[in-house]
């Protein structure tokens, strides 16, 4: 890469174009939030088609793409097609690089509507935040791309030389089941020198973050059986182990007394972390006053560099239907976050081995439906990383922080495998109070403005560089 001109004479005009375009971008974001597009089969799948069509229309209206298509890819190992994705492409000209912009238009289910202060699919602004399901994760990521493209097109004209592809996925929240196939089917259209994955967060609402490490994941279902059929707890309780008692005891072996993961074979990463206080954790995670944090080491090392295990679902008798019965079986869903550097498959094997070895009273333990993903570590020495940091600093007026993220974006491993020469830039519009996946999800409006400005500056500056190699 030569002449990575930063800053550029057109930077002030880019910033001004972003500022004037924010009201329209937020209005379009509100329209997207109103579409309840969820990839789970239990939900109306036509809403995902609406969502994809709306994103395709926004991409077309920018005027910068040579082609905009709504596409699907096959789900490997099945006869099914994945959810609709938007692929927009613009060829590079005059020796300029190409950048791929990623986000996703599907959202998490809203959960219990009663926990929302305002309806989840009715965008609402209050106290400097836009509330609604998908307002932050990840429809704001889509609009950051669209708004930044509008801004540079206004300043540079729609005949600028930078190559741009945009891939807006439709099933990220449902496991990106067709993602790898979509990449292979559209390899030439998606090939790029740098890839912006706008699906992460920032240090806080006014300090930008560039995500440089992500934990992997190992999610699976475990069934515990002790009886061929239910029995009366008064008749046999005290002599017969019921499945719930066995499950409780078995699950408790996953953690030490301080809450640290106690599974042999799950690894940790040794890496420094920025200062982060317990009070900050309490504020951002909403810990109750009497609840203490778990684990050992620095707080961020526990979140970024060590494994964690959460029980995220359980099938057993409900409270409403409780009876004096010994349960014959219990099913739980276990979600483990895996330290960067260990594969999801290695972690899954360790978890299965631990649970089999620790099953009390000879209980039958079986496993199914594994969903595995590898972590990610960014090579921070590349030219695109440097340009991104500069753009963030100039847009936010604050020094960017290199972040680890406790969550997982497993498909990044697919991007790295398919495009090994591309630099992966994991950015985002969220802040620690966005509550992605939770009731009252929201977008901090000033963070959104700054994120759009940072991406627009990055695109404009990349347009002034020559292709690497």
Give a quick precis of the structure.
The chain has 469 residues and is of the alpha+beta class. It has helices spanning 11-33, 46-61, 139-156, 179-185, 187-190, 233-236, 243-252, 278-285, 299-304, 344-358, 383-396, 411-418, 445-463; strands at residues 67-71, 85-90, 98-104, 124-126, 129-131, 163-169, 194-201, 209-214, 216-225, 231-232, 308-315, 325-326, 329-338, 364-373, 376-377, 401-405, 423-430, 442-444.
Plain-language structure description:
The model has no long low-confidence stretch (mean pLDDT 95). It contains 13 helices and 18 strands. With 469 residues, it is α+β, with helices and mostly antiparallel strands. It has two domains: 11-214 and 375-463, Aminopeptidase (3-Layer(aba) Sandwich), CATH 3.40.630; 217-269 and 306-373, Alpha-Beta Plaits. β4 (124-126) and β5 (129-131) form a beta hairpin. It has a six-stranded mixed β-sheet with strand order 1-2-6-3-7-17, sandwiched between helices. A four-stranded antiparallel β-sheet has the order 11-13-9-14, with helices on one face. It is elongated and about 80 Å long.
């Amino acid at each position: 890469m030569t002449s990575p001109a930063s800053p550029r004479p057109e930077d002030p005009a880019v910033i001004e174009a972003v500022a004037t375009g924010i009201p329209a971008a937020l209005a379009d974001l509100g329209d997207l939030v109103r579409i309840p597009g969820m990839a789970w089969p239990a939900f109306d799948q036509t809403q995902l088609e609406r969502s994809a069509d709306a994103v395709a229309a926004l991409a077309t209206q920018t005027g910068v793409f040579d082609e905009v298509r709504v596409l699907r890819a096959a789900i490997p190992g099945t006869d099914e097609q994945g959810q609709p994705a938007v692929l927009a492409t613009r060829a590079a000209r005059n020796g300029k690089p190409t950048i791929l912009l990623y986000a996703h238009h599907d959202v998490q289910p809203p959960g219990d509507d009663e926990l929302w202060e305002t309806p989840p699919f009715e965008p609402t602004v209050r106290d400097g935040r836009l509330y609604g399901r998908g307002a932050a994760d990840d429809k704001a990521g889509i609009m950051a791309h669209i708004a930044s493209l509008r801004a540079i097109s206004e300043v540079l004209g729609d005949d600028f030389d930078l190559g741009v592809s945009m891939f807006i996925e439709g099933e990220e929240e449902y496991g990106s089941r067709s993602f790898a196939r979509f990449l292979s089917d559209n390899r030439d259209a998606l090939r790029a020198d740098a890839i912006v994955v706008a699906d992460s967060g920032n240090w806080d609402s006014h300090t930008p973050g560039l995500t440089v490490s992500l934990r992997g994941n190992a999610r699976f279902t475990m069934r515990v059986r002790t009886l061929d059929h239910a029995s009366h707890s008064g008749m046999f309780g005290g002599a017969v182990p019921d499945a719930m008692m066995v499950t409780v005891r078995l699950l408790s072996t996953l953690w030490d007394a301080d809450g640290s993961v106690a599974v042999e074979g799950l690894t940790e990463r040794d890496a420094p972390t920025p200062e982060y206080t317990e009070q900050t954790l309490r504020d951002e995670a909403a810990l109750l006053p009497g609840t203490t944090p778990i684990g050992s080491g620095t707080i961020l090392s526990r979140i970024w560099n060590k494994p964690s295990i959460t029980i995220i679902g359980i099938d057993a008798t409900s409270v409403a239907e409780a009876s004096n019965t010994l349960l014959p079986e219990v099913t739980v869903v276990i979600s483990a976050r895996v330290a960067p550097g260990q594969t999801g498959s290695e972690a899954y094997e360790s978890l299965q081995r631990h649970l089999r070895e620790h099953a009390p009273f000879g209980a039958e333990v079986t496993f199914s439906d594994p969903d595995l993903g590898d972590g990610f570590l960014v090579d921070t020495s590349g030219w695109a990383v440097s340009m991104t940091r500069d753009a963030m600093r100039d847009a936010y007026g604050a020094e960017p922080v290199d972040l680890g993220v406790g969550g997982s974006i497993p498909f990044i491993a697919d991007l790295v495998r398919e495009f090994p020469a591309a630099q992966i830039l994991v950015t985002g519009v969220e802040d620690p109070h966005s509550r992605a996946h939770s009731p009252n999800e929201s977008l901090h409006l000033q963070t959104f403005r700054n994120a759009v400005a940072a991406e627009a500056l990055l695109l404009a500056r990349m347009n002034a560089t020559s292709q690497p190699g």
